[in-house]
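Problem statement: downstream parser choked on a complex file, so we are re-checking the raw output for the 5-amino-5-deoxy-1-O-phosphono-D-mannitol run. The parser issue turned out to be on our end (a line-ending mismatch), but while we're here, posting the original submission so the record is complete.
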Amino acid sequence: MCGIVGYVGGGRDAKSVIIEGLRRLEYRGYDSAGVAVVADGRIECRKKAGKVADLEAEIAAHPLDASHLGIGHTRWATHGGPTDVNAHPHVVGGGKLAVVHNGIIENFASLRAELETKGYTFLSETDTEVAGALLFDVYVNQASQDLTRAMQLTAQRLEGAFTLLAIEVGQPDRIVAARWNSPLVIGVGEGENFLGSDVSGFIEFTRDAVEMDNGQIVTLTADGYSITTFDGASAEGKPFRVEWDVTAAEKGGYNSFMEKEIHDQPAAVRDTLYGRFNEEGRLTLDELRIDESVLRSVNKIIIVACGTAAYAGQVARYAIEHWCRIPTEVELAHEFRYRDPIVTEQTLVVAVSQSGETMDTLMAVRHAREQGAKVIAICNTVGSSIPREADAVLYTYAGPEIAVASTKAFISQIVAAYLLALYLAQVRGNKFTDEIRGIIEQLQEMPDKIASVLENADQVRELGQELANSKSVLFLGRHVGFPVALEGALKLKEVAYLHSEGFAAGELKHGPIALVEEGQPVFVIVPSKSSRHSLHAKVVSNIQEVRARGAVTIVIAEEGDEDVVQFANHIIRIPESPGLLQPLLATVPLQIFACAVAEARGLNVDQPRNLAKSVTVE
Ligand code: M6R
């Protein structure tokens, strides 16, 4: 939620660096955008409701002076609607100080009242302008016009979540920023330095980065940076090198990031598997620093996550219970701590998150650890909050996911969770090494199989165009196909604004079948014929039931499965695979379909309305 960029240097024009960073961070929020620079001893600010492109038009109409220092923001509105006035930066103190902010300041109303009694007036409805005014007041009255000290004192008074960046005309060589429960990374260049909500804010200019910890303040100049705690004690960040380069964050010839990321999936699976087992099939999850005796004592697993990541968790549950025989629950992270869950020292909590910044999931992680559970994060963003607060992390190596709709992260979350399950099975002796090796070999075949599903993308795209004007679309699946159905429906809602629902196919006759009328499109994910409990036959019956009531059936079935042919209006073929691995294939056409419907409806596939990529508010 909200993207933040800061730049201080010598050789480049700050606004160009900032606009470039905002373009890359726009996936975090795109209600409004703005830039403030220090030029000739004054702050110049341009901001605009709408996209970064609207801000660029504003700057073209009202140019900003060249400058070597500035801050920028792309917003997902919380306090106050997406208007020009509410857009960041907020300039306070009679034009002397500017701030941008990500997060929510929960005590902003009382702070605002306090500042009003001192004579401050406010232009916007935002909590950010209040934080800026407080910072200015502290800067002038308590911190002897030292911006770092002022930020330390201000941060101590703010409640909620914030990444707050400030510039001040009196100290025109520096940006000072505070981080509390909201992300901030430093980019280290030569004679120039950067700040970003994540590394994509500066990836074009440097791949050397420093992770900041919660409760830290950084003072950034062209020559370096220094970090303190909110109390003013000297502190350190954690340097790291970004492993992907700028091309990974480009569309690469596709119409949208979503389309590109769907096509990244074979590589995402390959990279997530890479280096995690030896030739005998022994898993070596080096980064999973939890003692094996602790893993052996686990008697319950709870997977916490939101949205698509929670569906990945639902898929993983089937594998974990089957391979490890450990009772496993999947809980929406925002519900977890409010139902007083039974969590003990023998509970292993697995937090799944692409961004690693989802506040609901982060809060669930904290709650679990407070109860004594060990927490393993499955995450795609190195150095983000959730892996930092967890006891251990298993990274998915999907590369940057820019489109708001999660695609390659979902697939690689399933792969990472399967690796974790196999590791638990290995440590606890539930499976022999050769059994584990067999499953790993099947996983290793998945990148090529996903690639072959992608070869049929045109068929699915045509279907998307044909069904783009449907009133609603239903998705049915059983076993691991059930969360796949839920994911297919979420994708369609999210990017195409088309009403859709996913159901466990067995639930159909308990109510949802009443929705089926003539012409209703129904996707059905058909399990492998070799699946357990004769699931295949049951799903074929489900297809017949909806078809008999007038549904247009779109059947996702394995190559060679002829039983479905007579009941399918459309068949999308996927390669044969073991049942538990089928979601890695069956999800792909659903992603392509949602993307195609959104395009046919003329929508912005990558930036659906009302959404943001990482949800850093509860
Ligand atoms: O970054 P996270 O994986 O924690 O995000 C969780 C959800 O917000 C996310 O999966 C969301 O549902 C996606 N936009 C779905 O495509």
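For whoever reads this later: The first helix runs from residue 14 to 25.
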